[in-house]
Design brief:
about 550 residues; alpha+beta; 17-stranded antiparallel sheet; five-stranded mixed sheet; 10 helices; 22 strands; about 15% helix
């Protein structure tokens, strides 16, 4: 029986290899069909199968040219007369389908290969049919959520996450090129409103004539996205520097895809490599915290009060993020590498001038393979203890230099508190509160532990850790919960102090500890206990922390 099974497996593998290597040539352009929604298909007649999709055709908004432009950006060779192996075609079409589904404009996307042509000379030619189930042209959402003012983490810093009312209205794929227009309005528990309007579409559709053709002729040119955005928001920093930033902003961004163009390319819905270039003009107003009992007085440090008032920021940002694309799990990886980086230049006609750069890299190395139940029985005590052990290391850095452009920027070469780096928290430097290290004022508001964080111009953080599946509980381990121990270090200082390498290194803070983590759809969730080993007397420290966010490293 064993020999029979081996023969069947060998035959199955041989047949699979033959099918995958079978050469085919796709006829271009592809046919593009729209089909009924599942609820509209007559199941009793048996026409719900993909083989009967032509019987369920409906008019669609999507442009056939747009779909064929996307197909041209796959690895399928439509130009030469040479056939392509079936495995290559299948892999390319899977990527094509996944990219379209990520636009959020379709309930489903299918790519169906037709039967071979009857002519012997064209026996390897196949017609490609792209079958689309489009979403409704509009979407209205009313609900609630949690506001993340820092877009990085909700931490146990004494801050209570803000619950907010959310509503949005979207127009989807009206022009047939996966364009999305969206209006969002939120109101948090402090009655602070925010409003955002944005429109995202493929870049080539905004350019006419030779310019549009030039974009399409670029590698992956049909995937380049453009976003126009206008927003009004208030960012709450009262728990770290006793102030809020009221920001009115307009921006235009070009990115390597239309997925995530509405954010910074690092939201939970975007797991592809992201690159973008954004121009923005923002009117910012630093508003110091007011005394609860005497609201005509400021409950903030003199340094924050001195920074109060409006300022205009005009800047250009170029950045990239791997978004965990090269790891086995975006939010709780055990193998692979990750990276991010960016540069921002601000100047006239704005009031602030500076050049700012940041970046980081992480590596995750599996040391001991994860064992199955049968292997665990023969692995012994030590083998079970070290089961699934992985090594992790990361480095993050940033630098900021003020520029005055010959006096054209009113702020001179001094940098604004809103543009400086603020370091600390469970997802940056464990053992310290958000904005817990670096330059601080001697005093601060009642909601700030210690003095107000005034920020720094040069920082680095580094972390090394070991992790393993949660021991002793198969349910937790099977659901991705991991136990880890870590050591991290970092510092934040002014550019002037950073020029003295000895002083910069000696200002490093360190902490060690352990915790548990799990990757969720919202991001990485972790709880840690840390022991700060090296710190300044002015640092805001915390041993027990919990946080959720888009963790890097």
């Amino acid at each position: 029986m064993s020999n029979e099974r081996k023969k069947l497996e060998a035959l199955s593998e041989k047949l699979s290899n033959y099918v995958q290597s079978y050469p085919i040539k796709l006829i271009f352009p592809a046919n593009v069909f729209g089909i009924k929604q599942p609820s509209e298909i007559d199941v009793s007649s048996g026409d719900q199968t993909s083989s009967n999709y032509k019987d369920n055709k409906v008019p669609i908004r999507t442009s056939s040219d747009f779909i064929n432009f996307r197909l041209m950006d796959t690895n399928i060779d439509f130009v030469s007369n040479e056939p392509t192996p079936m495995s290559n075609v299948t892999e390319s079409l899977q990527g094509f389908v996944a990219d379209l589904e990520k636009t959020g404009c379709y309930e489903s996307v299918q790519a169906v290969l037709g039967r071979p042509k009857d002519e012997p000379s064209a026996s390897d030619s196949r017609q490609l049919d792209v079958i689309l189930q489009e979403k409704n042209w509009y979407k209205i959402y009313v609900g609630g959520g949690i506001k993340q003012d820092h877009a990085s983490a909700i931490s146990s810093s004494g801050m209570i996450p803000k619950v907010q009312f959310e509503t949005s209205a979207s127009l989807i794929n009206l022009s047939g090129e996966t364009d999305v227009t969206q209006l969002n309005y939120t109101l948090d528990q402090c009655s602070t409103p925010s409003l955002c309007f944005q429109h995202t579409r493929p870049l080539y559709t905004l350019l006419s004539g030779s310019l549009g053709d030039s974009v399409l002729n670029m590698d992956q040119g049909s995937k380049l996205g453009a976003t126009i955005k206008a927003s009004v928001d208030t960012v709450d920093y009262e728990h770290t520097r006793s102030s809020k930033d009221h920001v009115q902003k307009i921006a235009v961004k070009v990115a390597n895809n239309t997925v995530g163009s509405s954010s910074s390319g690092h939201g939970p819905g975007n797991d592809d490599i992201y690159t973008g270039l954004e121009w923005s003009l923002a009117l910012r107003d630093v508003i110091p915290r007011r005394h609860i009992t005497t609201p005509f007085q400021c409950d903030a440090s003199p340094e924050v009060i001195a920074a109060a008032g409006p300022n205009l920021k005009h800047s250009l940002v170029a950045d990239y993020r791997f978004n965990g694309y090269l790891t086995d799990d975006r939010f709780n990886p055990t193998a692979g590498v990750d990276s991010y980086g960016g540069i921002e230049v601000a100047g006239p006609p704005g009031d602030v001038g500076f050049v700012k750069a940041w970046g980081g890299a992480a590596i995750h190395i599996p040391i001991v393979p994860e064992l199955d139940e049968e292997e665990k029985q023969h692995a012994g005590f030590l083998g079970n203890i070290l089961n699934g052990l992985s090594f992790h290391s990361s480095l993050n850095f940033g630098a900021l230099k003020g520029l005055n452009y010959g006096g054209l920027c009113a702020g001179g070469e001094s940098t604004n508190i809103s543009d400086r780096f603020h370091v600390g928290g469970s997802h940056q430097l464990r053992g310290f509160l958000p904005s817990g290290i670096g330059p601080r004022a001697a005093t601060g508001g009642q909601s700030v532990p210690g003095g107000d964080s005034t920020g720094g111009e040069v920082f680095y953080t580094a972390s090394t850790s070991l992790s393993m599946p949660f021991p002793g509980n198969q349910f937790l381990a099977g659901n991705g919960v991991r136990l880890f121990g870590f050591a991290n270090a970092g510092t934040l200082t002014s550019l002037e102090n950073a020029m003295d390498i000895g002083s910069f290194v000696n200002s490093t803070r360190t902490a060690v500890g352990g915790g548990v983590s799990v990757g969720t759809k919202m991001g990485r969730l972790e709880a840690t206990y840390a022991v700060p080993l090296r710190y300044s007397s002015s640092d805001a420290r915390r041993a027990v922390q919990a946080g959720i966010g888009f963790t890097f490293g």
